[in-house]
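Supplementary notes for students who missed Thursday's class. We covered one full example, reproduced here. Read the sequence, then the structure, then the short commentary at the end.
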Amino acid sequence: MTLIKSISGIRGTIGGASDEGLNPLAIVKFVSAYATFIRKNAPSTSAKRIVVGRDARISGQMVKQVVNGTLTGMGFDVVDIDLATTPTTELAVTMENASGGIIITASHNPKQWNALKLLNYRGEFLNEEEGREVLELAEKQQFEYASINNIGTIITDSRYRERHIESILRLELVDTEAIRAANFRVAIDCVNSVGGIVLPELLYALGVKELFKLHCNPHGNFSHNPEPLPENLTEISALMTQAKADVGFVVDPDVDRLAIVCENGKMFGEEYTLVAVSDYVLSHTPGNTVSNLSSTRALRDVTVKHGGQYNAAAVGEVNVVAKMKATDAVIGGEGNGGVIYPASHYGRDALVGIALFLTYLAKKKLKTSELRASYPPYFISKQKVELTPDIDIDAVLQKVKEQYSQYEITDIDGVKIDFPDKWVHLRKSNTEPIIRIYSEAHTAQEAENLGNEIKLRVNQ
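Structure (token representation):
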């Protein structure tokens, strides 16, 4: 059994002995620490309540009951929105003027995993300093629970999926008339989680009439590996041609990542989800963009084409959001299909991504594959080096910086080397004892060769 504590929350596998895994004892300790942090740091203008949402994992109901009981025991009222996407929960925090929020989801991890993702009063993830404070509070276990007259209550509210969709329909760049007139045939794969409820609701509200569903029953027994990567999406790829669908959408269990499938069954590419949506947004709202250091250079190319400035952030949604705010970015996100659109909210949101993409596709009057072909062709290779006790990661990164000093170097998160026509990014994983090596070039072979070259440098 595994339990991983990090600045972004706590995650682990369900079951096992009392000192391992994501068990009720670990949940109580961590939620108590989070509630202590919120009590100390939330502004007095926010209500003393915390929003709790969950994806459809089998363990979700059990974890939620422990979370809710702990929060009320700490004196907070709980707004229980139950089955809800991560972006829905984020929006609910601000709509409720709540002090914070907890999302019960292990994102793209297999069904035996679950996790607690922690939000501040803005409905955004805690930053590194805040996350570290929660971890320290959990370690000290100096909690003060509410007296009998100050125990919190649980308020059940199932309307937030609908409110989320309504907020998307009100976005200026979402054109339901154009989508309706396009008569799109749309296929979806929701991997047996909450997307199976909310994606059909969104698509029908946008004006889509013909919908082909895969794995939309939210029972939590994921029908395939839930990470929306090409090797896991063979079923929807086959469905595209069988159903003569115009576009396919695939989401992860908490619906903050969006993968798109072309009408011919080929992958649009998770990296290009953000590129296409940004192209549309920038064509109407000139401005800057942000993605993380490991995301495709195509976003920079599209941004420059529209007269904007592209900036790179350290890996992690909270880092991207911080850079977006600092640079007044009008659109941003991550190359894993995560679209962050500030006109809606500062969080990755696959539902917003779907609405903007469908609007753009309708207005361009192109096939999905034709839209994909209009963007600069880049290929990313993802490799890793196992860390051993004798590897000094800091020394390795410094050596690589010195060996490639004639090129543009970024070291805010590991080391990224920008060559004129390609790049490579090395960084230590936050969750595994490995160095991740991502490289990008105009061909898959070039990207692979560049990654292999850097691996040799690391192993020397």
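Commentary. The chain has a mean pLDDT of 95. The two ends are 34 Å apart (CA to CA). If anything here is unclear, bring it to office hours.
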